[in-house]
Design brief:
Elements (H helix, E strand, L loop, with lengths): L2 H8 L4 E6 L2 H12 L17 E3 L5 E6 L4 H6 L5 E5 H7 L4 E6 L5 E8 H4 L9 E6 L2 H9 L4 E6 L6 H4 L5 E6 L3 H5 L2 E10 L1 E6 H6 L1 H16 L2
Parallel strand pairs: 1-3, 1-4, 7-8, 7-9
Antiparallel strand pairs: 2-3, 4-11, 5-11, 6-9, 6-10
Length: about 230
């Protein structure tokens, strides 16, 4: 990254929006277009090593980061706005973040799953202690604690479906969309934790210091999320 790449982020007058890499990004981009915000051509280049991008609006820059990092960039003021899944926002629960708007994209849900054979005789209401592999240890612990169940969470960043197969644990907590990945690995959903969708995340300090500008963007995204 060059000094030129960093210039939009360090300019205090620039509005910085953090976007997540991965599946959500393609669903979010039509909303950006409806908001009148178009990234520079390099943004569409999957081989580009740039992380900071200009837009058609000289006062707005975009940074592209891992989905789990978006809340951190927003909470600590490195970005003023961000797009993050409600699952990630629930995991971190940063008080510095205000998430006023459901963008109605990236819809799925967070669920507990286990091998199909075990689920045939298992009864979740009788659980007192569970060992779970998950990317969401905080959400998982809170969910089970609310039911009086002690959860031992094994933090994994991917390939969760392997954990039961290899004896690491019997259950996982992960995002479920169609359920195809679970079925392909001999797992079934046994408990739904929360519905998930992408939300607009706002830095609370920016909301106070730049209220008209931030509110204007919230309104733009709200209109875009309603569709034509």
């Amino acid at each position: 990254m060059t000094a030129l790449d960093l210039a939009p982020v360090t300019d205090p007058q620039r509005l910085v929006i953090a976007l997540p890499k991965g599946r959500i990004l393609k669903e979010v981009m039509p909303l950006f277009a409806q908001c009148g915000l178009i990234p520079e051509p390099d943004f569409q280049d999957e081989d580009s090593r740039k992380l900071t991008f200009e837009t058609n609006l000289p006062e707005v820059s975009i940074i592209r980061v891992r989905s789990f990092d978006v809340p951190t960039f927003v909470a600590f003021g490195a970005a003023h706005l961000g797009i993050a899944g409600s699952d990630v926002l629930m995991e971190f629960e940063y008080p510095e973040i205000y998430a006023p708007l459901d963008l109605r994209v990236g819809k799925c849900h967070l669920a507990v799953a286990e091998p199909k054979a075990a689920a045939a005789t298992d009864e979740p209401s009788r659980w007192s202690h569970v060992r779970v592999a998950t990317k969401y240890p905080e959400v998982t612990r809170r969910h089970f604690a609310a039911r009086g169940v002690q959860a031992e969470c094994i933090k994994l960043n991917g390939a969760l479906e392997l954990a039961p197969q290899l004896g690491l644990c019997q259950r996982i907590v992960d995002l479920v969309s169609t359920g195809a990945t679970l079925r392909a690995n001999g797992l079934v959903e046994v408990e739904r934790i929360a519905d998930v969708s992408s939300r607009l995340a706002v830095n609370r300090t920016a909301m106070k210091t730049r209220p008209d500008e931030i509110r204007g963007w919230i309104d733009r995204f709200e209109r875009a999320s309603r569709g034509p």
